C-alpha cells in the first residue's frame, strides 16, 4: 500500500465507512489431470453403488504399462482395458476405474517424509526418524514455486501437524530462490524468440565439467543472467589450466628434503592456500559459487607463480603437494569428473568423493607484512610492502624511503605525516 492509499484508508476509517482487513487467498489446485504420469486416483465407478473408494488392502493402485499415448481425446489410462475394467469393492459387480491421475505435486508435497524410511512396508514413515531428520534444512526452488510446490508442501505439513502426525508446522527451515538463466539476448528463453540454449551443443564441445563450472561461475546463483558463449570458453581455458599445473608439474614424491624451507614464496603459497580454503568454504555455504571458484582461481595462479619463481629442485614439495591436493578437493564439487581423474593421477586414493573437505589454519592467514599506500597531499604516489605494525617513527622512515618518494619530495618541506594504521601514510607538504 502506497502513501496515497494509506491516507485514503485512514480517512475512510475516521469517517466510520470502512476498515482495513487482511485476507488470505489459496489458489485453486487442480488435483486431477488427463496424463499418464502421476499417482492414480484410487476410486472406481459402479452403476449400482456409485463412487467407491478402493480399499486400503488393495492400495497402491499401480499404473499399467500397456497404454497408448497417441492423442485420442481421452486420457492415456483410458486406452488400457485391463486397467479400466475392474470389480466394485462393495457389490463385486462390474466397475470402471478413474482414468485421471493426481497432480505430481500431491506426492512431492510430502515425499521428504517418506525419504526417512522409504523401505518401511508397514507404515508411511517412522515418526522417530521424521523427528530426527526433519524439517528440511534447505529448500531451493524458483520464485514460481512460491505459489506452487512451496505453498502446497506447507499446506500438507500444516494439515499433518494439526492431525498430530508430524511434530513441526513448517516443512523447510530456509529458502533460497535460484535465478533464471536467460537467452543470449537477455530475454527469458523461449522457442518463439529463438533464443533457447541447447545444452547438448556445449556438452559435446566442452564436456559436462566445463558446462557445470560456467553455470556456477558465470552467474550469481540467486540472480541468474544472460547466456554468453565467451564466458563458457573462458571457463574451458581455466579447466585446462588447472589440469596442466597439477598433472605436468606435480612432483612424484613429497620429498622431505626441503620441507623446512619456508622463504617468501612458500609463505605466500601457504597463505593463499589457506585463504582460498576459508573463502571457498564460506562462499559455498552462502551459495556464492561464482566467488568460490574465484578463490580456487587465486590458488591456481599462486601455484603457477610458485613454479615460475622456485626451481624444481628447490621447492618445498610437501607444501606444494598439499596445495595441489586442496585445489583438487575444492574444485571437485564444480568439476567432479576431471577432479576424480586428477586425484587418481596424483596418486591419491580412494575416490575423491570419500574425502573430507579441507580445513584452513587461521594462523597461516596472519601476515607480518602488508602493502602500504603512500600518498603525497592525498594522492597515491607509491605502494610498498612493509611491516604491518610499526611505531610512528618507523612508519615515517619507511614512507620517506619508499620507491620514488625521495625524488618526489626533493627540495620540498614536509608539514606533517598522517598515518592510518595498517593502511596508508599521507605526507603533507
Structure description:
- The chain has 4 domains: 32-102, no CATH class; 105-177, no CATH class; 235-364, Isoleucyl-tRNA Synthetase, Domain 1 (Orthogonal Bundle); 369-428, Ubiquitin-like (UB roll) (Roll).
- The longest helix has 22 residues, at 264-285.
- With 429 residues, it is an alpha/beta fold.
- It has a 4-stranded antiparallel β-sheet. Strands 12-11-14-13 form a 4-stranded mixed β-sheet, covered by helices on one side.
- The protein contains 15 helices and 14 strands.
- It starts with a helix and ends with a strand.
Instruction: Bin the helical content.
Output: 25-40%
Shape: elongated
DSSP E strands, number: 14
Mean pLDDT: 89
CATH topology of the largest domain: Isoleucyl-tRNA Synthetase, Domain 1
Question: Could you state the CATH homologous superfamily of the largest domain?
Answer: Isoleucyl-tRNA Synthetase, Domain 1
What is the fold's blueprint, element by element?
Blueprint: H1 3-14, E1 32-33, E2 43-46, E3 50-53, H2 81-84, E4 85-87, E5 94-97, E6 101-102, H3 105-108, H4 111-115, H5 127-133, E7 139-141, H6 149-162, E8 175-177, E9 180-182, H7 199-206, H8 208-217, E10 224-226, H9 229-247, H10 264-285, H11 289-309, H12 317-331, H13 336-345, E11 369-376, E12 379-387, H14 392-401, H15 405-409, E13 416-420, E14 424-428
Amino acid at each position: 500500500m502506497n502513501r496515497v492509499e494509506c491516507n485514503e484508508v485512514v480517512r475512510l476509517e475516521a469517517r466510520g465507512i470502512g476498515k482495513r482487513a487482511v485476507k488470505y487467498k489459496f489458489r485453486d489446485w487442480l488435483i486431477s489431470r488427463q496424463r499418464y504420469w502421476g499417482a492414480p486416483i484410487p476410486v472406481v465407478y459402479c452403476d449400482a453403488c456409485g463412487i467407491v473408494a478402493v480399499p486400503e488392502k488393495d492400495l497402491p493402485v499401480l499404473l499399467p504399462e500397456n497404454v497408448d499415448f497417441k492423442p485420442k481425446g481421452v486420457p492415456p489410462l483410458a486406452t488400457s482395458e485391463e486397467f479400466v475394467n475392474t470389480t466394485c469393492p462393495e457389490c463385486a459387480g462390474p466397475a470402471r476405474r478413474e482414468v485421471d491421475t493426481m497432480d505430481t505435486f500431491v506426492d512431492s508435497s510430502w515425499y521428504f517424509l517418506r525419504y526417512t524410511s522409504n523401505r518401511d512396508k508397514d507404515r508411511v514413515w517412522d515418526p522417530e526418524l521424521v523427528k530426527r531428520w526433519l524439517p528440511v534444512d534447505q529448500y531451493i526452488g524458483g520464485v514460481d514455486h512460491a505459489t506452487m510446490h512451496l505453498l502446497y508442501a506447507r499446506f500438507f505439513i500444516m494439515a499433518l501437524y494439526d492431525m498430530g502426525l508430524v511434530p513441526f508446522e513448517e516443512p523447510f527451515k530456509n529458502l533460497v530462490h535460484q535465478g533464471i538463466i536467460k537467452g543470449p539476448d537477455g530475454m527469458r528463453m523461449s522457442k518463439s524468440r529463438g533464443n533457447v540454449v541447447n545444452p547438448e551443443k556445449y556438452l559435446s564441445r566442452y564436456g559436462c565439467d566445463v558446462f557445470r563450472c560456467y553455470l556456477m561461475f558465470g552467474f550469481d546463483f540467486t540472480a541468474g543472467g544472460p547466456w554468453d558463449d565467451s564466458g563458457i570458453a573462458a571457463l574451458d581455458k581455466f579447466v585446462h589450466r588447472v589440469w596442466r599445473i597439477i598433472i605436468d608439474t606435480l612432483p612424484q614424491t613429497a620429498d622431505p628434503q626441503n620441507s623446512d624451507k619456508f622463504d617468501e614464496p612458500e609463505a605466500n603459497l601457504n597463505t593463499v592456500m589457506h585463504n582460498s580454503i576459508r573463502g571457498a568454504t564460506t562462499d559455498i555455504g552462502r551459495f556464492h559459487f561464482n566467488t568460490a571458484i574465484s578463490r580456487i582461481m587465486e590458488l591456481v595462479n599462486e601455484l603457477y607463480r610458485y613454479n615460475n619463481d622456485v626451481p624444481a629442485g628447490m621447492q618445498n614439495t610437501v607444501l606444494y603437494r598439499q596445495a595441489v591436493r586442496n585445489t583438487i578437493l575444492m574444485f571437485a564439487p564444480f568439476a567432479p569428473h576431471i577432479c576424480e581423474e586428477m586425484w587418481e593421477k596424483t596418486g591419491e586414493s580412494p575416490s575423491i568423493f570419500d574425502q573430507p573437505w579441507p580445513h584452513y589454519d587461521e594462523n597461516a592467514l596472519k601476515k607480518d607484512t602488508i602493502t602500504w599506500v603512500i600518498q603525497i597531499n592525498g594522492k597515491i604516489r607509491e605502494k610498498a610492502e612493509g611491516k604491518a605494525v610499526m611505531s610512528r617513527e618507523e612508519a615515517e622512515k619507511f614512507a620517506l624511503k619508499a620507491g620514488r618518494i625521495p625524488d618526489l619530495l626533493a627540495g620540498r618541506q614536509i608539514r606533517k605525516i598522517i598515518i592510518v594504521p595498517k593502511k596508508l601514510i599521507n605526507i603533507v607538504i
